[in-house]
Amino acid sequence: MARLDPTERSKLPDRAFAYIDSRGRRRLPIHDASHVRNALARFGRVNFESDAARDRARKRLLNAAKKFRIVPVGFIAGQLEVERALPPLDAGSTVLPSGFVTLLMTDVEGSTTLVQRVDEHFAALIEQLWAVLRSCVSACGGHEVEARADEFFAVFESPRAAVDSAIEMQRALPQRTWPGDADVRVRIGIHSGYPTSTASNYVGLDVNTTSRVCALGHGGQIVVSANTREAVKASGPQGVAFKSLGAHHLRGVGAPISLYQVMSDGLRSRFPPLRPS
Fold this sequence. Notes:
It is a single chain. By secondary structure, the chain is α+β, with helices and mostly antiparallel strands. The protein has helices spanning about 5-10, 35-40, 50-65, 75-85, 110-120, 120-140, 160-170, 205-215, 225-235, and strands at about 20, 25, 100-110, 145-150, 150-155, 185-195, 195, 200-205, 220-225, 240-250, 255-265. The strands form three sheets. A seven-stranded mixed beta sheet has the order 4-5-3-6-9-11-10, with helices on both faces. Strands 1-2 form a two-stranded antiparallel sheet. A two-stranded antiparallel sheet has the order 7-8. The radius of gyration is 22 Å and the shape is elongated. It starts with 5 loop residues before the first helix and ends in a 14-residue tail after the last strand.
């Protein structure tokens, strides 16, 4: 490419490049990991000719980040600032978000014993539980993915929203009166990543990771992966803290993953060590 002088460089549209170096050469953002990181950092300073152009560029950039397994923490923080000024999504929308998302899973601690205790009331208990969980997910802008047996699965575009939803769940459940005077406690696992989306669900390693993280916890506890913790700390950590639970080998997941317990007002803080994976 021919060298551009300063006047020519100034006339180039921002959408055309990640940056122009001092020698007037265009540098595209997504051909290797360093360029992807540079483009993520610069994205918020680029002026696009339309919202559609911005959305196309964002999708392309996030796909490149996924290819190089880059967790775009700073990018998420910047995009959240932009999205706060946008109208909220339709709560009844059935379109699940894609790209870098945060997955939340819950299950009921001691569900087998609970079934035996409440007997015919168990179906009503689960319906009440799902109603509480759905309310917390909806209030924080999340999307229900699936509810079956004693398990519940939701997804969020904002990592902080997923954590806030989990906190509201754990605060709300002890306040409920359950059928058969049951003591209902759920464990919650949260992980941020790039799951593969289907028409109405998600599949892939990130889904398995979320499930494994959930299974390690105890009733009343919220356990998150390092991905989620770093994204929340970048986008707004006020009101929450993260207690390190160490690195853990999760069944079916390659490298050890650092896990953290969410700490916030109104939540239990003391739990036994995490369950075996």
